[in-house]
Prior knowledge:
By secondary structure, this protein is mainly α. The protein has helices spanning 2-24, 31-53, 63-86, 90-101, 109-117, 124-144, 153-157, 159-162, 164-178, 184-194, 197-208, 221-245, 251-262, 268-276, 280-305.
Amino acid sequence: xxxxxxxxxxIAVVIGVGYVLGYRGHLGDDGRAVLTxxxxxxxxxxxxxxxxxxxxxxxxxxxxxLVTATATAAAAALFVTVGLLxxxxxxxxxxxALCSSYVNAGNLGIPIAVYVxxxxxxxxxxxxxxxxxxxxxxxxxxxxxxxxxxRPLWQRLTTPLRNPMAVGSSAGxxxxxxGWTIPSPVLEPLTLIGNMSVPAVLLAFxxxxxxxxxxxxxxxxxxxxxxxxxxxxxxxxxxxxxxVGVFHLHGAAxxxxxxxxxxxxxxxxxxYASKYRxxxxxxxxxxxxxxxxxxxxxxxxxxLLG
Length: 306
């Protein structure tokens, strides 16, 4: 329980600082946009590269990842199915599906893994899966669904190769797969730049909350409520069902996959929505709502399975 509260407290403080910055206007009218561009184009790609370059890629094929991947795909598919029936557009479907399934494995998952699960490396499988598979796929969809696009076919097909996040991820995986030891003069500047990613994302998210009302209100209320419910309740339940019924997990292994799936939507999803100027309210309010709701959910899971 202490780990859950500690992880959320750290995030809340940084978001609160961002809110104050926005309220006082210290970063000017473009502060949020600059932080978003910094995170998307520079800091997060550097963080992905340095993280994945030293990762053990064998964890991708672990049993636990199969459970997490199944729960992720199921939650996203449920949102897309409902969204298609309601006629939501591609941008809203993509961002909503991400908010329904993409967990905060980095800045929240790591401290919770340390304090609740006892091992920070336990979030590595889902972190790798999201950055290698989910993020490039989602950003490619957002790229290709931009209104008014009339680029040649070859440019559209090579979209993932030109996306900074995908480039950072693929370069990191290549370095890990080849066993390349990155020289310190290269690694240390990238590490320093990558360390800006999480604070920049959280500060930008906090700035965006200035002037916002309570979440899940207005025209996007159904999508926000659906994504938050899928993220905080349905996804961990699916992970528990698949873990017990299919892979026969129990004890610490079962606790790991259920806690990981119950983590709230990641703040960097707002960065994606803001970058592509689609479903920004949906991303912002769904992240906020799932973060609030996940606190009691994680405490109950830790009490029942811990």
